[in-house]
Amino acid sequence: ALLNPNQVTGNLKAMALNDNTYITGANYVRPAKFEVVDIDNTKIKQGSVLNSNSVVSFANDADGTDMPVADFFAGYEFVIPHFRYRHEYYVYSPYGDAEVMVTTDVSKSYTIARGKMLTIKGGDKNTLSAIIRSDLPVMISHAAQYYSGYLADTYTVPPASKEIFGIFSRLVIIGALEDNTSITIYASDGSEKSIVLNAGGRYMHSGNGSLLQQGKGSALRLVADKPIAAIQGADRDGIEATAFFGIEYFARTFGLPINSQYLAVACKQQAKIDLYDTSGVIVDSQTCTPTITATGLLPGKAYFGSADNGSNLDAGQYIQSDQPVYVILESAETNDEKNLLGLF
User: Which of these, 340, 296, 320, lies nearest to 14 by C-alpha position?
Assistant: First the structure.
């Protein structure tokens, strides 16, 4: 679902990860495996739904864009850690008329009809996390509206989870669904830290993990006794954020629909990862290696591309891993970090 309004202004690219893939809902396209195609923005609007018979990697070079929200991000309970500016939640109900409760500093209920999207204003209280609960599965995209009107920190919102992974790139913001939530933060540099959050609480992470810009920071694994969420925000040269994902969103094959500066990878299992050029030749191979300590599992980290700005990785390149991993990229054109989905 195309919930972010900036997605419909153009530049949305799709990369097939399987043979015999087709995409409908805008222009009908049948890309070959690892082929990049354009989605015709004249035939879509906010809330439009794209359909495919296989997993497709999507990305957009336009500012203030995230990937479309895949249907397997539908859920009942969400946490959205507030970082900056004024927040908007784009909520889509795919299966029926949903009753949705949104709690920030106040609570308000909404009814969202089946197949419809509602924009909900979340305010600018940036010392808390929003909590969204629904009686039917819904899909959510987040954006923060700067006071001049542009959108920043756009990302697909996954349902709250007890174990999530991401990349530490300057700022990590964590939120909790329930009171007295114990969270342990494991970092790929060998450090760990424990915190406690209450429902709607927000924690600006510091104190463990290597904090480096351009995706060079530590991979983080957050483990909690109750559902949580986290985002990576603003590595100083873009206006975007990326969401931490649970292992149910990990994959083995990822395509690059746009020219990228880097790919940053986190893993829970040791993974051999090969980077292919657009002709299908391996040009780099890395091993992502977690570490088991007496107190828990530290995630592994791998990195492709460069901390230097530019098109270090071309649209049409792809990676294949022998184990499922988490991946973010940075757009070479806008320097915005973006989540990436792949094929399991």
Answer: 340
Q: Are 126 and 201 in contact (CB under 8 A)?
A: no
pLDDT for 16-60, tens place per residue?
999 999 999 999 999 999 999 999 989 999 999 999 999 999 999
Euclidean distance between CA atoms 91 and 25, whole angstroms: 19
Q: Is 163 exposed, middle or buried (0-12, 13-18, 19+ CB in 10 A)?
A: middle
- Mean pLDDT, to the nearest integer, of 179-193? 96
Strand partners, 232: 172, 242
Where do we find the tokens 């959050």? 197
Cα Rg for the chain, rounded, in angstroms? 19
First to last CA, the chain: 20
218, 224, 227, 233: CA torsion to nearest 10: -20
**What is the dihedral sign for C-alpha 212, 73, 79, 126?**
positive
Q: What single DSSP character describes residue 78?
A: E
Distance CA 179, CA 252 (A): 35
- Give the Cα separation of 266 and 288 in Å (integer): 7
Nearest to 161 by CA among 183, 137, 186: 183
Cα-to-chain-centroid distance, residue 331: 14
Dihedral pair phi/psi, residue 235, rounded to 5°: -90, 25
> What are the residues whose beta carbons fall under 8 Å from the beta carbon of 21, sequence distance 6 or more?
30, 31, 33, 52, 53, 54, 56
